[in-house]
Structures are given as C-alpha cells and as structure tokens.
Specification:
Length: 208
C-alpha cells in the first residue's frame, strides 16, 4: 500500500473533525477553525503545498469575519434541470457528474446545490463571485464538499423543511489555488455571481 493512502485517510478524518468540533458559532468558532486549518496546512503531508511553500507558510489569508455573510435561505427545486451536469476536472478524476439538488436564493444571488453522482455521493457547492481574480481565487471557491469532509459550517441544511444557512466566512479555495498539479472542478456558469462576497478565504499569495 502506498504511504499516501493512510495519509490521505488521516487528512480526510482530520478535516471532518475540524468542521465538527466546537465552538462552531460566530466569530469565536471561525477563529478556532482558522487556527486548526492553518495547522493542517503547515503540518500535514497531504496539504496541497510544496515543501518550499510550507517552509514559508504563515497562515491562510482571509477576509475579516462578517456577521452579514451568514445568510438564511430555503432550498427550492431546481429552476431548469437539464439532467446531470458534467464537469471536467482536467486531471486524474476526469469528468465528474453532478445532479442538481435545488436552488438557494441568497442576498448575493442564487446558487445551485449539487449532489456528486459518484460512489457514496455528496453535497457540493462551488461558486465564483466578483472578488474572483483580484481578491479571491480566479476560479472560484467552495462552500461545502461533503465527500472531502467539509460539512457542518459553511452549509447547514434542514432535511425536513429545506431551511438552509450559508456561512460565507467559511468559503475556501480548491487545492488548485495553491498548486497547479492539482485539478479541481470549478463553479459552473449558474453559480457565478455578479456581487462581491468579501468573506472567507482570499487568494493565496504564493501559488505554484
């Protein structure tokens, strides 16, 4: 077995623990989360940083915490469902298929919540806003990708009522924002917003 396999399993476990470990609410929870995520990027062998990046690492850059970036909304049926959406990752994962779960109408604009049609499935919410390319990563950011363990903070969803809370303070960069050897599915046109969301992770200053 490759040494990378147990390391990747440990990375997934520690990411999930980070998202689920209290405190979760408010700025205090966000600050604690940031400290834990910085420690993972600094120390863990599966972090998407080179040795040179890790040696110079001083923490991931974020916009300041904004209470107004916590948005309540409802999950509505998809407006136009043309069947599964296929996104080419440009890497070993090839083309990934997504099913539209529904639309989330927020003060920043409407976003589609996707379900990954792979083994086990998972919720996925990528987006690209007007900060992209200057203040945040040009390809957009993620709010949740439950396959990777990033659930419990950025998106909370009540299965019985469809009520949802999106906390854009937890918006984070895909791995390709740090290192071009990674390939990531990015936000499709229906999840590109004209509004600025000045919350969450900013563009990484030293990508390779």
């Amino acid at each position: 077995m490759s040494d990378a396999v147990p390391a990747l399993a440990d990375w997934r476990l520690r990411v999930a623990e980070l998202y689920l470990t209290p405190p979760i609410e408010g700025e205090e929870g966000w600050e604690e989360f940031r400290r834990g995520r910085d420690a993972l990027f600094r120390e863990h062998p599966q972090a998407p940083l080179t040795e040179e990046q890790r040696a110079a690492f001083r923490g991931l850059p974020y916009f300041r915490y904004r209470a107004e970036a916590v948005v309540s909304c409802r999950l509505e049926p998809p407006e136009d469902d043309d069947g599964p959406l296929e996104i080419d990752t440009g890497g070993e994962d090839g083309v990934v298929r997504y099913r539209r779960v529904g639309r989330l109408h927020t003060s920043y604009g409407a976003l589609t919540l996707f379900w990954i049609e792979g083994y086990g499935g998972g919720l996925f919410l990528p987006f690209r806003d007007a900060t992209a390319g200057a203040e945040s990563y040009g390809g957009g950011r993620y709010l949740t990708d439950t396959v990777k363990g990033t659930f419990g903070r950025g998106v909370t969803l009540a299965a019985d009522s469809g009520d949802a809370t999106l906390d854009f303070n937890y918006s984070y960069n895909p791995s390709c924002a740090y290192n071009s050897r990674w390939a990531c599915p990015l936000a499709p046109p229906e999840n590109r917003l004209s509004e600025k969301i000045a919350a969450g992770e900013r563009v990484f200053p030293t990508p390779v």
